[in-house]
Every structure is written in C-alpha cells, then in structure tokens.
Amino acid sequence: MPRYKNPQWQKLYDNMLFLAGDKSSEMYHEGEPRRGAGHRAAFWDGFSGKFDFTGPKRSAHVIPGTMSAVCFMAGREFARRVKKAAKATERNADAG
Fold first, then answer.
1. Which residues contact 28 (CB under 8 A, 6 or more apart)?
2. What is the rounded distance in angstroms from the CA atom of residue 37 to the CA atom of residue 45?
3. Using 50, 70 and 90 to split pLDDT, how confident is the model at 10?
C-alpha cells in the first residue's frame, strides 16, 4: 500500500528504500553510509533513530512537507526493515 498520495513522493520513497538495499548504490561509499547530499543526510538521520521529525531533536536536514521529509521517513522504514530481518535471522539461528 502506498505511503504517499503524491506520486513523485511515493517514487522517491520507494527508490530510497531500493537504493539503501544495494551496498553498491550512491547511498554508500566503500560499504559505509554516505551522507554527502541533502537527500542522503535526511535518509541516514531517519535511519539512525537519533532524530525526530519535529521538536528539539529535529534533524537539520529535514524540512516537513518537502522531499527531505520523504527521505527521512524512508530511512525510518529501512531501519525498521533491517531490525526485522535481524530478528528473523536470530530466530533462525536459535532454531537451527
């Protein structure tokens, strides 16, 4: 189910998740997160869990209502997926 009604934002959200899953993409440099551009910085701020969307712990790279916010939310979703995959791997290791 799409997260955004705006097709441009949904495409960006999906593409950020796709790129984050590929360690050879522009999201990484030598296997480590690359933050050198605004969209990547917003994504990795969302991924880190250290920042909020608004309030005193707001990321300086995110402006609500813009594509940077979409990147931030994609980062949060990617972090959720990574944690879910790690838990599944851990369960499989315990079962085997």
1. 34
2. 12
3. very high
Structure tokens at 13: 């959200």
Q: Looking at the chain, how many residues does it have?
A: 96
Among the listed residues 60, 83, 77, the one whose alpha carbon sits nearest the alpha carbon of residue 10: 77
Distance, in Å, from the CA atom of 43 to the CA atom of 62, rounded to the nearest integer, reads 9
**Tokens for 29?**
């440099």
pTM confidence score = 0.89
| pLDDT tens digits, 14-70 | 999 999 999 999 999 998 999 988 999 999 999 999 998 888 899 999 999 999 999
Q: Is 16 left (phi over 0), alpha (psi -120 to 50) or beta?
A: alpha
- Give Dmax (Cα) for the chain: 46
